[in-house]
TrEMBL record:
Domain Acyltransferase: 6-295
Protein's name according to its UniProt entry: Acyltransferase family protein
Gene Ontology molecular function terms on file: acyltransferase activity
Membrane-crossing residue ranges in chain numbering: 37-58, 70-91, 103-119, 179-199, 225-244, 251-270, 282-303
Keywords: Acyltransferase, Membrane, Transferase, Transmembrane, Transmembrane helix
Pfam families: Acyl_transf_3 (PF01757)
């Protein structure tokens, strides 16, 4: 842990808090304030996670060690949690619907991140990778893509991953300058005001990246402009959020190394909380507590087998290069 930059762990922890709180208030969207907060958070919370994932994946290669880590940290947890989230449907509704190619609930992120990481070497060879990624994102809205491989989200949110890949340490350092904290705070506040004013006039599906333009009820030109606007808003708010993220070590820096635990496990708490009318303030407070607790060492120790399984037994011994 002493070799980790606390800035990125701080950003990851704060991002997972937003993710959990966003899911906690999802069923309360009949309340205008809840809907505005939901809209605001969803514009940039997963783009933030995806951008950070891209930045931290810059050194990904097809080496044996990296491939094994990809399987252990994404592929196997995806299968386990796809099965785990199907069990409540079986117990409550008598339905057992499992499709490993069609992610259920929040497991889509594991599927998409797996595909994005596999594509990393390709983006690093292109002259204008971000332009290509944005083009693919806009084109994905013009077709009714299948749910398999979470194609709509995988292609729609692709520019944020590629943006992370293209970022350099000097870009991040520019965001960490003291005056940028003021700029970032003002930008985030302006974004919240905009969400409060505009959330009723914008279809919620735009911030979910799940459907084609036609399914949302617009033509492709209008849909492409809307998607471009969502991409731009996401980038601005991601940059603003990274600007206000503390650079120093904080009480939650260590928790930021375990955000995948909170991401994969919080869905069970959300599903249980949906049965109670908690209200917006209580739901948000509960989201903060849940996100924090699920990143703690006891939870990591209890669920390491599912989130970060040790699979050395499943792989052949790595061959050392011949000198």
């Amino acid at each position: 842990m002493s070799d980790r930059d606390p800035y990125f762990d701080n950003a990851k922890f704060l991002a997972i808090v937003l993710v959990v709180c966003g899911h906690m208030i999802e069923d309360l969207r009949d309340d205008p304030i809840a809907h505005a907060l939901y809209f605001y958070v969803y514009v940039f919370h997963m783009p933030l996670f995806i951008t950070l994932s891209g930045y931290l994946s810059r050194n990904f290669t097809f080496s044996s060690g990296k491939a094994r880590k990809l399987i252990a940290t994404l592929a196997v947890p995806y299968v386990l949690f796809e099965l785990a989230y199907s069990l409540p449907r079986l117990l409550l509704y008598g339905k057992l619907e499992i499709s490993l190619l069609d992610p259920y609930y929040l497991t889509w992120f594991l599927m998409s991140l797996f595909l994005w990481r596999l594509s990393t070497p390709v983006w690093q060879q292109l002259r204008w990778p971000l332009v290509v990624a944005v083009g693919l994102s806009l084109l994905s809205g013009t077709s009714a893509l299948p749910d398999e491989l979470s194609m709509n989200r995988t292609l729609g949110l692709l520019p944020f991953y590629v943006l992370g890949l293209m970022l350099r340490p000097e870009h991040v350092e520019a965001l960490r300058r003291p005056y940028m904290k003021v700029v970032g705070a003002v930008t985030l506040a302006a974004g919240l005001v905009a969400a409060l004013l505009l959330h009723d006039g914008i279809a919620t599906e735009w911030i979910r990246w799940r459907h084609a333009n036609a399914a949302i009820g617009v033509d492709d030109l209008t849909g492409s402009m809307a998607r471009l606007g969502m991409l731009a808003a996401g980038v601005v708010l991601v940059a603003a959020f990274m600007a206000v993220t503390p650079s120093r070590r904080t009480w939650f820096s260590g928790l930021g190394a375990a955000t995948m635990y909170a991401y994969l496990l919080h869905g069970f708490v959300v599903k249980a909380a949906e049965r109670f009318e908690l209200g917006v303030p209580v739901s948000i407070a509960l989201g903060v507590v849940v996100a924090t607790l699920l990143c703690t060492p006891p939870v990591r120790a209890a669920f390491h087998w599912a989130v970060e399984p040790r699979l050395s037994w499943a792989f052949t011994a790595l061959r050392r290069p011949v000198r």
